[in-house]
Specification:
heterotrimer, A mainly alpha, B mainly alpha, C alpha+beta, A: mainly alpha, MetI-like fold, globular, B: MetI-like fold, flat, transmembrane helix (chain B), transport (chain B), BP-dep_ABC_trans_perm (chain B)
């Protein structure tokens, strides 16, 4: 971050042996404040968490360095493995469903029809709505006796469900909320991809006699594939970290049936104040997310390469 | 022939409208039901089959929210936390986005990507301890500061993308015209980037406003923001549905209004941010 | 106004050398064009003069002052960019007055200077408009106006006309030239279009791969190109080049085509590989001379462009008269030997 004065014209003699002054403006001062803030609120917590994970410390009690004991404890913790499984199913469902509905919606909103802009605006609203507020209303709608959802089901002849109050139904029920809220994001990403798709191939495919399905399968799909991949990556990262909806609706319950890693982490650190163990969990959780993103990015790279070769 | 083609096109677009309407209906129904819940007395909310439009509107639900729960204070807290965190983020994030774009140091933005991947809770543990140590708990500052974790990356991320697309020749022309680097930024780059600033402002505002997890750890009775306040209402089971739904609506209404009025900017920002985000 | 002296200027990006030590002397008030194919380093050179790009070696003087390490804002130059680089958030007036405002000139002075420049360029009625409300030619004029208002030591132009359509380009070419004659500021003008360089410049610098191929007045370059590169670059349509040797007092190709030699020719050892250069416009349609078959005929009304296949050699001719020539016709073309050039095939130099 060397800042060299740029106002000082130098003679040839002075220049020898010293670094030549820069004409290009020094942009580091623009970045510096953000760098400080990011170091303080982002980088410092990373390092601190890493350090805390090597200690045994419950708030209010003395701290002792215990090396990797927290990690060993984590591996042997059945509740952690369960929460990992909950996280996996929750995330998988919360990626696949929004991806399906979002792509469908994007294909519709890519076409022209009356009130398109308005309807798209309405469609985007769930992802902007405050998750806690959304969760609260869904909780009322899921109510087994008074909820509107069971009433709607009864209209089509389906018996009442227990939704989030049932151990085996709770995760799918939460995924409904997650899907409702985050399908619009997938729609926007795919819509952005569709906007970048050129028209000419469709015209030539039309001349070549392709039907609608063939055009979708052989033109649209490959061309928006990179964007679908982006949607998968973003959705995965968001879903695996999902907190607000789960915490506000079930706090991980009933029992621990919907306790994901993030919820368990919260309980450990801020309900039991077991800071050391919570930090270790945070580190492992973070590594899981990084690994997942890395794998997905690799897949995406490969997808892009094959695209390049085709062109 | 021509008229048949036109007729087919109108039919097509009507069909599409219908399909789109069906897709949008879960959204409309949800919000309609939310409004309905918030405007019904307890008897109506407990009725089976459920009632969408009650005979008597329970406007008093909204009054109750403010009377019984100190909601005005929480509203004000939300405004302070979100407002300050967003403005601070703009002040430091816009120049940073500019610097990173011009340094061609997009790789340094990886840190922002990773920040996005990091679970919010892992920021909370250390910062919670620091705030405690600084005895800031009990003021709004811990929340303002930790909301920067949300707002700064959004602003920096969007502004990098924006400044990358603004032509460098304009800035070269300005430097030839005699502008210092700071003048180039303030008089040329910044005014041109106004749309980008608006987008990042709106998005930072929304995501900060909606944030729940930071508040639930850091806020106490006096420093709650709206999402936390609403959650706390939920945990007291004795509260009836009407005021609860009203509170939920109050929390999210500002954001929904903003979404409606700034739809174009939000869509642009999210699309750009998301697509770059990969 | 000032002289510009460029001495042994070099530029490398890492290990890649793009400019290999260039010397150019520009006198006060001169209009110099830097031409060359894309990638020859002409824009990089201009940007180094402007102070937008670091020099890797050598020095640049504007007037008596060594400026190569002085930032652009202190060099007292003005530059017109290829895409005009008008500030989109400022009106025409604000665009033109921006430099003066930065210098903290007072409002009245800015107003009068901008007004004067606007009068020169016919922009008086557009002063309140924003760039996006202007046509391409008007934007071009505003960009020039912004330069004039500065009253700088040197004007720099970076391919200013390449975004305009053909007709407007010819018109603006004339306007820039007129402006220069009126104001007389030293001007450095980068273009890839040799016609622009020929019509506007007092002096042309031909660049190629980071080297200077030739510096000279336009007609000098046309009449006495230093080498094959310059001969081929200057002039349109391009000069014909035909490989061959001098044998028995005549220029012969390997396929037996014989071309007339200029009289004033230093003695050349026979057997040396040579290139014969003749411009299409220096070939007349005749009843004698080279016999060839027309393989392309293009008439514009005022001129007739014909490509002949003469014993396997492809020869372009530009006739100034109307002739009734069709595809495949046999044509006799007479070369003006005084206008012919000979180049050494190995070195490319003109003999």
């Amino acid at each position: 971050m060397a800042s060299v004065s740029i106002d000082n014209p130098m003679t040839d003699a002075e220049q020898i042996g010293s670094k030549p002054p820069r004409l290009v403006p020094n942009y580091w001062p623009f970045v510096l404040p953000a760098l400080l803030v990011v170091s303080a609120v982002i980088v410092f917590p990373w390092l601190f968490t890493l350090w805390m994970s090597l200690n045994s410390w419950t708030l209010g009690q003395p701290r002792t360095f215990i090396g990797f004991a927290n990690y060993v404890r984590l591996v042997q913790d059945m509740r952690f493995w369960e929460s990992l499984w909950h996280t996996t199913t929750y995330t998988a469902l919360s990626v696949v469903l929004p991806l399906f509905f979002g792509t469908l919606a994007a294909l519709v909103f890519d076409a022209k029809f009356p009130f398109r802009g308005f309807l798209r605006g309405v469609f985007v609203m769930p992802m902007m709505a405050t998750p806690v507020a959304v969760a609260l209303v869904w909780t009322m709608m899921f109510h087994p006796q008074l909820g509107v959802l069971n009433y709607l089901l009864s209209l089509v002849g389906i018996g009442p469900q227990e939704w989030i109050y049932n151990q085996s139904a709770v995760i799918p029920s939460l995924v409904i909320v997650e899907t409702w809220q985050w399908t619009p994001l997938v729609m926007l990403i795919v819509l952005g991809g569709l906007a970048a798709v050129p028209r000419e191939p469709y015209e030539s495919a039309e001349i070549d006699g392709a039907n609608a399905w063939q055009k979708f399968r052989y033109l649209t799909m490959p061309m928006i594939a990179p964007f679908l991949m982006i949607a998968v990556i973003i959705r995965s990262i968001d879903a695996i970290k999902s907190f607000d909806i789960i915490y506000a609706m079930t706090q991980g319950g009933p029992g621990t049936a919907s306790e994901t890693i993030n919820i368990y982490l919260y309980n450990t650190a801020f309900a039991y104040y077991d800071i050391g163990y919570g930090s270790a969990m945070a580190v492992v959780f973070f590594l899981i997310i990084i690994a997942l993103s890395f794998v997905l990015l690799m897949v995406r790279q490969r997808a892009n390469w094959s695209d390049m070769e085709d062109r | 022939m021509a008229s048949r083609l036109i007729r087919r096109k109108t039919l097509d677009s009507l069909g599409l409208f219908f399909v789109a309407f069906v897709m949008v209906s879960p959204v409309i129904l949800f919000f309609l039901w939310m409004i309905s819940l918030s405007l019904k007395y307890e008897i109506d909310n407990g009725a089976y089959p459920p009632i969408l439009i009650p005979e008597n509107f329970a406007w008093s639900n909204y009054l109750k929210v403010f009377e019984e729960n100190n909601f005005l204070l929480y509203f004000w807290n939300s405004i302070l936390v979100t407002g300050t965190a967003t403005l601070l983020a703009l002040v430091i994030g816009v120049p940073a986005g500019y610097g990173i774009a011009r340094l061609k140091a997009e790789k340094s933005a990886v840190i922002i990507m990773i920040a996005r991947m990091t679970p919010g809770l892992s920021f909370l543990i250390p910062l919670f301890l620091v705030f405690q140590w600084l005895s800031l708990i009990g003021t709004l500052w811990p929340q303002i500061i930790i909301h920067l974790v949300v707002t700064v990356p959004i602003v920096v991320w969007i502004m990098i993308g924006y400044f990358e697309t603004t032509p460098i020749e304009l800035e070269e022309a300005a430097s030839i015209d005699g502008a210092t680097p700071w003048q180039v930024f303030r008089l040329v780059a910044l005014p041109i980037a106004k749309p980008g600033i608006v987008v990042s402002f709106i998005l930072a505002l929304i995501f900060s406003w909606n944030n729940f997890v930071f508040g639930i750890v850091l806020a106490n009775r006096e420093t709650r923001t709206l999402p936390v306040a609403v959650y706390n209402m939920l945990s007291f089971e004795q509260v009836s549905w009407g005021p609860l739904a009203a509170a939920a609506l109050i929390v999210t209404l500002p954001v929904l209004l903003l979404t409606m009025f700034a739809q174009r900017q939000i869509v642009a920002g999210l699309t750009a941010g998301a697509v770059k985000g990969g | 106004m000032a002289t510009v002296n460029i001495q042994n200027i070099q530029k490398n990006y890492g290990a890649v050398k793009v400019i290999h030590g260039i010397d150019i002397d520009i006198s006060d008030g001169e209009f110099v064009a830097l031409v060359g194919p894309s990638g020859c380093g002409k824009s990089t050179l201009l940007r180094m003069i402007a102070g937008l790009e670091e020099v890797s070696g050598g020095e640049i003087r504007i007037g008596p002052r060594e400026v190569s390490h002085i930032p652009a804002r202190d060099r007292d130059i003005a530059m017109v960019f290829q895409n005009y680089a008008l500030y989109p958030h400022m009106t025409v007036e604000e665009n033109m007055g921006f430099a003066l405002k930065l210098k903290k000139a007072d409002v009245a002075e800015i107003k009068s200077k901008v007004g004067r420049a606007a009068a020169i360029l016919g922009l008086e009625k557009l002063l309140d408009r924003y760039p996006k409300q202007l046509s391409g030619g008007q934007r071009q004029r505003v960009a020039m106006g912004r330069a004039i208002v500065r009253d700088p030591a040197v004007f720099l132009f970076d391919e200013p006309l390449s975004n305009l359509d053909a007709k407007l380009r010819v018109q603006m070419r004339g306007e820039i030239k007129t402006m220069h004659q009126r104001i007389g500021t030293t001007t450095i003008y980068v273009t890839h279009d040799q016609v622009e360089a020929m019509t506007m410049a007092d002096k042309i610098v031909v660049l190629h791969d980071g080297h200077i191929e030739q510096i000279g007045a336009p007609l000098d370059l046309y009449d006495r190109p230093a080498n094959i590169f310059v001969a081929g670059f200057i002039g349109s349509p391009a000069m014909n080049f035909i490989d061959g040797r001098i044998e028995e007092g005549a220029f012969r190709t390997s396929k037996g085509l014989i071309l007339p030699l200029p009289q004033t020719l230093p003695s050349i050892p026979g057997g040396r590989d040579l290139v014969y250069g003749i411009r299409p416009e220096h070939i007349r349609a005749s009843t004698q001379g080279i016999e060839g078959r027309a393989i392309l005929v293009e008439g514009t009304g005022s001129e007739l462009f014909v490509r002949l296949d003469a014993k396997g050699e492809d020869i372009a001719c530009l006739f100034r008269e109307r002739l009734d020539i069709g595809f495949g016709d046999t044509v006799f073309a007479e070369i003006d030997p005084t206008k012919a050039h000979l180049f050494d095939k190995q070195t490319g130099r003109r003999i």
